[in-house]
Amino acid sequence: MTPTVYEWLRQSPLTGIFLTLLAYRVALSISRRYHGHPLANTVLVGAGLLITSLLALGLSFDEYFRGASFIQFLLGPVTVALAIPLYNNLARLKRSAFAILCSIVVGSVAGVASAVLIATAFDMPPQIVLSLAPRSATTPIAIGVAEAIGGIPTLAAAFVIVTGIIGAVLARPLLTLLRMNDEVVLGVATGIAAHGIGTARVFQVSETAGAFAGLAMGLTGFVTAVVAPLLVHFLLS
Amino acid sequence: MIETFLWLLGYQFAGELLARSLGWPIPGAVLGMLFLFLTLCVRKGIPDTLRHNVPRLMTHMSLLFIPAGAGILAFWPLLAERPLAMAAVLLLSTLSTLLISALTLTLLLRWQQGRKARS
What we know:
The complex is a heterodimer of chains A (about 240) and B (about 120). Chain A has two domains: about 5-75, no CATH class; about 80-235, no CATH class. Helix content of chain A is about 85%, strand content about 0%. With about 240 residues, chain A is mainly alpha-helical. Chain A has helices at about 5-10, 15-35, 40-55, 60-75, 75-80, 85-90, 90-120, 125-130, 140-150, 155-175, 185-205, 205-235. Chain A has twelve helices and no strands. In chain A, α8 packs across α10 and α11 (about 185-205) packs across α12. Chain B is mainly alpha-helical. Chain B folds into two domains: about 1-65, no CATH class; about 90-120. Chain B is built from six helices and no strands. Chain B is extended and about 50 Å long. Chains A and B meet through α2, α3, α4, α5 and α6 of A and α1, α2, α3, α4 and α5 of B.
């Protein structure tokens, strides 16, 4: 490759967009080949393939993100669109609204408390503990909360992503193991513990589970933003 | 497709404007989702364009998280300081969050059913 061509490759948004779509399509084939096995998760495999190709091409994340930011931008409208599957499940939502809301509050508190307590038990430095606290919320909320309580925002963002991937991979096997086969329980638990990445995963399983995951993700964000600063203060004092 | 994106981006726009003018730390898109949901409840129906296009959009929601997933590359030096302890903390806390949430909901749903059956 001549230097000018390589320079273009690094500068053009086309590179990031094309590589992302390609990595996703390959990940989708792998996921289908293994009949949706949890470890063949499309975000996990797709991101793994992408990181490998960025390293092979010698591209930095910032260069990649010039194009990839266009894809990430679509998260906004797609989050809004979660209202439609939720409305399709209105009857089920009305019937169980109280139980779902209570679980979301309990789960959000558990999300913050488990991170703070376990990280303290592992002797993590305070700045890391504070960056871990909001990791169950979606990225923008987690970054805001981490900043407010004295964590490191970029580190918090990394924890959010890893948490989402872990939750997306483990949620279904865990609940199957415990014989909890209710789609609503799968959706709500995944939305609380693994925000959007978990929501995207359970949408591949069923629209109902996806709808409740989306609701749980949104409300967990609210509750975490309100509760995390108080709870962290209480747990660490 | 154009109408679908006008709806979705319009609600996200409204959500962003409200969150920013009130200084709330809530993403505009999450507020937009709640507004759209309330609109559908009031309208008692889903506009045709959304009913046709949104399900296809949702099937590929995973695609949109791949850039963030690749972001682990940029954060790697921060994550790899104590890799094993870090992995253990993230794994254990995520598992316990999942477990507590699922158990709470299962028990509450059972309790609710029991109450209905008795009444």
